[in-house]
Amino acid sequence: MSTPAIEATGLGRDYGEVRALEALDLVVPSGALVGLLGPNGAGKTTAMLLLATLLAPSRGHARIFGHDVVRDRRSARRRLGLVFQEPTVDPFLTVRENLEFAAGMAGVSRRDTRAVVDGALERMGLGPRASQLARELSGGWRRLADIARATLHGPALLILDEPTVGLDPEHRERLWSFLDSERRARGAAVLFSTHYLDEAEPADRVLMLAKGRVVADGTPRDLLAPFGDAVLEVEGPGAASFASALQGDGHAKIVVPSEGAVRIGLDGRKEHALERAAGAAGLTRSVLRAPTLEDAYFARTGARVAT
Amino acid sequence: MATTALAITTRDLRRVRRQPSRLLGGVARPFVWLLLVATGYNSIAQLPSGIPYREFVYPGVLVMACLFGGALTAVSTVYDREFGMLRLMLASPAGSGAVLLGRTLSATVMGVTQALVVLGAAPFIVDVSPTRLLLVFGALVIASAVSAVLGLMVASRLRSVENFAGIINVLLFPLLFLSGALYPAARLPRPLALFASVNPVTHMVELVRRALGQSTEFPLAMNVAVLAGTAVTAFALAAVFFDPEARLIGRTRPARATGAS
């Protein structure tokens, strides 16, 4: 069995009295796609900075391809490609110059730089924009230049903190298909955080964080399983009593109160449940839909991921 | 490490090329001093060495170009921290040492470039041979490198560009005024003269004076010792402050620069 891309055991970080990350246990095999979900302040960025060797852990330890993130930072960094929330392209440099700078930072020799940069420009479709100043690019293209910057040296592990924030659907699609090709072609592992829960559904594994703690950990399928085939979302003064009645009759697998509404995971017979909702007193709205990771997060924390 | 340091230097110089006003502003400052202060005092100042005031102050103005050019270039480091780029640089396999080295190189080039423009006026102010000009060039490289490291030391602790601009000016002007650049340090009151004797800018000015063949107040060995000591100490302090773990452990809340949540 090959060395995992990430092995973290009890990894945690405090800022004085504030416990930003309690204890993260995580193994990410090569080629895996793993998502971290949680609202602002959940500990996602802290977890990523610890794994990126940019923060020292307060407790626990982590290895990147077997290299300890504290004692063997340099070796760990050679395997990493990082994308932060803020775009890290220099607005006063052209796209090509930005990538040349990134190649130098990754330790690519001057002799190999041209080929490496040309390859990154081509893979990301940035060739026609290579001579443009980064400040003249749209936010979407700037983000794609950022991804090209992070991947040009062929890192075996990509750590991406909210990579799709502010991107339109076209650029989001382009970004995810590029990351998918990186996984398939090179076996690169990807650890990402996102507020867009649909982006986490193709992941091999999802960790949900709240206030520095891991509140759920599993495949999206496992996390959605408690909700059955469908979720009936009802609103109105009678929502809670309707949900109790449905649960009492054995039609509801799980009932999750959420911000004025109640989400009910149905155990089959969804049309029947919807008909009952249509005739129930005190309901102002009822919607039948597929379960989402937002439901799973709400069930564990009583809060939304995207705040 | 060399590849990474060169990448940083190349990036910084490309940025300067796209913002020529930074270079022009840096060159304008010493020329303003040369024209306004040196010309004004030239007719009234009586110096023990007997040389005209304009010749006396010229080495100080050259060092001013190195000092401000070298130290103010460190603002790039603060800018990079404020906008998240520094985190990317610190995550490179070469680490913070390469970042500091690259930044020192680019700031030195900036200081020397600005000083060379001022040196272009030398034939109108001092009588100097080509050999002495080479010596002056060497002194300017040393002055710029030490200034660069001093600027980095200040920048390594700061998180906003506005703070850096304010603090660096407050630091640089006293260093310049108490350096013997504008008047002989020996004539200062004793505590200030004592400060001047250990002030690195004093010894930068002295190196340039020596190169131009002017009289000096301190021995060459002291010039070299103070400048080398300053450079090593400032570089070491910058390295300590720069290290993300050293900076972040013990913080009471997530740092803005880390963006931690």
Describe this structure in words.
- The complex is a heterodimer of chains A (307) and B (261).
- In chain A, helix 3 packs across helix 4 and helix 5 runs parallel beside helix 6.
- Chain A has two domains: 217 residues, P-loop containing nucleotide triphosphate hydrolases (Rossmann fold); 62 residues, ACT domain (Alpha-Beta Plaits, 2-Layer Sandwich), CATH 3.30.70.260.
- In chain A, a hairpin with a 2-residue loop joins strand 9 and strand 10.
- The mean pLDDT of chain A is 89.
- Chain A contains eleven helices and 14 strands.
- Chain B is mainly α and 261 residues long.
- Chain B has one domain.
- Chain B starts with a helix and ends in a 13-residue tail after the last helix.
- The interface between A and B is large, with 47 and 37 residues.
Biggest interface pair, residues each? A-B, 47 and 37 residues
Secondary-structure element pattern of chain B, one letter each: HHHHHHHHHHHHH
β-strand percent of chain B reads: under 5%
Biggest sheet features of chain A: 6 strands, mixed
The percentage of residues in β strands of chain A lies in 25-35%
Radius of gyration of chain A in whole Å, from Cα?
22 Å
Give the CA-CA distance, first to last residue of chain B: 31 Å
Q: Helix share of residues of chain A?
A: 25-40%
Could you name the CATH homologous superfamily of the largest domain in chain A? P-loop containing nucleotide triphosphate hydrolases
Q: If classified by CATH, what would the architecture of the largest domain in chain A be?
A: 3-Layer(aba) Sandwich
- What is the ordering of alpha helices and beta strands of chain A? EEEHEEHEHHHEHEHEEHEHEEHEH
CATH topology value of the largest domain in chain A: Rossmann fold
User: What is the name of the CATH class of the largest domain in chain A?
Assistant: Alpha Beta
Q: Count helical runs of chain B.
A: 13
Describe the strand arrangement of the main beta sheet of chain A, using strand numbers. Answer: 6-7-8-3-9-10
Portion of residues within helices of chain B: over 70%
Number of DSSP strand runs of chain A: 14
